[in-house]
Amino acid sequence: MDKKRVLIISAVATLLIVLVGVFIYFGIVKGNSNKKTYTGGVTDIDFSGYENKELNGNFINSGGIYTLTGEYNNTITINATKADIKLVLNNVNMNTTGPSINIVAADNVYIELIGDNTIKANATSELNGAIYSKADLCFIGDGKLNITSNIDGIVGKDDLQINSGVFNINANDEGIVGKDSLVVKGGTLNIEVSGNGMKTSNEQEKGIMTIENGTFNIKSKGDAIQSISTLTINNGVFNIESGNGTDRTLSSNSDSMKGIKSKSDLSINGGTINIKSTDDSIHTNGNLTIINSNIAIESGDDGIHTDKDLYFKDSNVNVNKAYEGIEGLNITVDSGNISVISSDDGFNAAGGDGSSGGRPGSARYSNTSNSALTINGGTIYVNSQGDGLDSNGNIFITGGEITVDGPTNGGNGAMDYGDGGTYKFEVTGGTLIAVGTKDMAVTPTSGTTVTSVLMNLDNTYNEEFVFGDIKYKPTKSYNSILIVSNKLSKGNTYDLKINNNKILSLQLNDTITTSGTTGNRGGPGGGDHGGGPRR
């Protein structure tokens, strides 16, 4: 083979190798098409065969089990590359300048709690936690750990995990910080801080938070629970107060004082959650699912807010105070019991980014036909000063028992959906009773198969009304009644009685019947909700 041909073959082979390398780099490193989802957590270590060792002064530089007891006024430093370490705190009292425990390097560090342990630390700006770890760190044991810190309580720069124990944390900034992940499998966490209660901080590709169980009593001036990525709650008991309770007058518009917040998807799959928050009680910039959970909320802003889709199933949700009660791009209720009391809209299905700052009422979503409120089942009650059930796009009701005590002002309606003739308010199952002002009252649209009647009245009433076999006592004044129910039949005549006085007699000649003078809806979704970006 001549020399020129050899050179050509060699060049082609080199080019192929380079191209394969480029494809691998962009397909795997850049595209991440086969990348596994990061789940966080610390490696499960069995320390039964590990040696019990003594401290080298205040230093740990090799793997093994170390026990601390009594008084310590100097930082315990762990610097043991590629080693697994269990540090037992057995009735320890630590009072230090700088972090009380500083983990510089290790593979995995387990801190076991026995008895009653106290840590008081004057942390530094670089080593900002009373316990500060650059390695994977996991807490075990049934003991107690009391932490007082001038900056943060526990800071994990890698994965941080809590399996058990009782934690009493008082800090001038953050309570518990896990950079790559924060996983809580159990224990009792009592946290009172001037910043955020619990958070993750890795904005690159990790930063997940997972809570599988435990009791959480959190009082924070910032967000109580904040994940920079996804947040999953599978169980637990949560008693949360963030910011200044429900009083927004004591806070800056830019302060984030949410109860539970995630930057990406949020899943709540069980547990009992009680929140009083200045800002949104539950907030995510991603999708939100709430399944088999018990939630009670009081908020100075939105009760539950997601920038994307919101799904409810088999949950008891009580929004007892909020500006807007429940808000998302698409909202679906499959089952459960939901009650909302709001000073603006009860349910608001709307499109747009709700992540920027602003006071309640100073902003709105953009109007989009992609928004939909879908109710397939459950028991829903809304008491709103704004729109009761509102969608900037469509409303679909296929089941459920729904009652709305709507607004008494003329700029809003008990029911509201998109204008323009292409949007639907369609009822094919369930029962709906919606009362309020007639100025913005609407009927279901074509495609509705359940008999409906809208009665706009000449006078305003406060008393119980009876229409056929349907009886209801609104909580406030009304001059419009919308009923959609299989208890009504097309062709039959029914009397409307209020306070035992016959107001009118009405024959239902069609599936959708209207009586009295209707008002005028304005703008997509019915009326102006304000301008500018929402949080």
Structure characterization notes:
The protein is mostly beta strands. 5% of the residues lie in helices and 47% in strands. It contains 1 helix and 51 strands. The protein has a 32-stranded mixed β-sheet that branches. The chain has a 15-stranded parallel β-sheet with strand order 2-4-6-9-12-15-18-21-24-27-30-33-36-39-42, with no helix packed on it. The radius of gyration is 29 Å and the shape is elongated.
Could you name the key traits of this structure?
32-stranded mixed β-sheet; mainly beta; 51 strands; 15-stranded parallel β-sheet; 535 residues; disordered C terminus
Strand content: over 45%
Overall 3D form: elongated
Mean pLDDT: 89
The separation of the N and C termini measures 72 Å
For the largest beta-sheet, the strand count, sense and barrel status come to:
32 strands, mixed
Oligomer: single chain
Q: Which structural class fits the helix and strand makeup? A: mainly beta
Helix tally?
Answer: 1
Total strand segments:
51
Q: What radius of gyration results from the CA coordinates?
A: 29 Å
Helicity level, as a percent range? under 10%
